[in-house]
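Journal club prep — side note

Before the paper discussion, L.F. wants everyone to see what a predicted structure for a comparable chain looks like in token form. Sequence:
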Amino acid sequence: MEPSLEITFDRLRRYLAEDELIQAILDELRQTLTVDRVVLYSFNSERVGQVTFESLSDRKLSILSSSGADECFNSQYSQLYEDGRIRAIPDIEVEPIESCHRDFLRELQVKANLVVPILCARGLWGLLVAHHCQSTFNWSADNILAMQVTASNVSIFADSLDS
């Protein structure tokens, strides 16, 4: 990960309230990855999820507060992310994914998708998701590392964000 992103996280922690901090972190991540959308998708105790924060390149792409109910996301996938699964999809049209998941991503205007779990002491808290909506994209190791570092930073606030 670029040193500037890590320095930005440290500076932001000192000056911003938690909600502002999360938003600033997502904005910085979106710009660093040069993606169209980054969302924080958090789960409640029943494993029902909702987009609670987002950073966008274009307001027309907003899915904030969406339940984002992917019919294909079940306890099997939840367990994979609980175990630390990272899912990088460079092109949703050629990736071997379930058709209902492909339809869900199309509905969100997604061409390429990167998902990293947000894990805290009690397990899977949510997902950090980056979307390319304009084109397909080959995710690099640096992209994945930036997402992992960001997810780790967000996990620090997971309990307070639940309140």
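L.F.'s comment for the group: The chain has six helices and five strands. Keep this in mind when we get to the figures.
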